[in-house]
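Allow me, if you will, to draw on your knowledge of protein folds for a short while. Thank you for your consideration; the sequence and its tokens are set out here:
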Amino acid sequence: MSPLGSCCLGLAFLLLAAGTSSSDETLHWSLSTPAPEPRSDYAAGVLDGKLIIVGGTWWTGTKGNWIKKQFSSSTHSFDPRSGVWTKLPDLPVPLGCAAAAVVANRLFVLGGYTGSQVNRKIFTLESKHGEYSWKEFGAVPFDRVYARAVSVGKMLYLVGGTEQFEPRDPTGTCCTSRTAKRSLMVLDTEHPQKGWKDLPGYPGDLRFYFGAETDGRAVWMFGGIYQERPQDPIVAFHDVARYDIAVGKWEQVKPLPDVSREGNSPSAVFVGDGFVLVNDSQKVWKLDSAGESYRELTPLPEAAALDRFVWVNNEIVGATGENFIQGPRRRSEWVFVGKFEGK
């Protein structure tokens, strides 16, 4: 997803969660069933062994004549084993550029932009007896768009973001970042009445469109971009930082080896002994858990900027986003599935 054509950074990098991979394994990619409603800027997570995609944005019009960015409330699940997409109940409001994380098999969606205002409600999606439903978990006492969320146990961490949706023009072309925040906050989802607790803000320059994930011990933050005014150049950051939860401090580790064609920065998922990073120029790396070295893996089969990759049943799964065949703003129907196989 190009920052010139979408309100939320396409997650340019992937980090694998819950699994193990070693240097004697090869990553193999394949394409699965196309997404039924291609969009970017969505919230995502894994529930019941399926990828869940919530909300997001898409454009009316055609290449060379994109008219206006639209905000979606659609919710879908994708089963990578069967390749089947299923329509779930719509989010209560249209929403793009929201943060999301799963806690105890509930998908938390918070912040973001409805198309007319910043959303302050926290929504949760969960299933009972195979039936999915949305509930309101409460509200956040601050405005956040483009923030990233991760969870460790019952704790929900929210990193950065902007206080406003800052389109460059009336059609919704994204986005400047004058209201970017350096914040890191945490909410105990078992005791939400205690409210959000402020933690030390991330180091380095202000930014948004960064990636964030956890290895269970730290909150990791990858790259990011910044643009003060529409006429200013986009500044892309390569640095990687992690917040040690037990110690309560940030530290910087080895920077990213490359950035995408648009300067887009990573999303993240942990794989047991490191992070796998995928950018929208198809390149893929693995970062070891100490944050000291990278090695290159099999590239993605198509160049696309995806909002989120997840680890589901020992597979990497990522869906829709923005492709580059028809240029910025064209939403992609591609669904990627990656597997590690021993040599």
User: Anything to note?
Assistant: The radius of gyration is 18 Å. Residues 25-342 form a domain with the Neuraminidase fold (CATH 2.120.10.80).
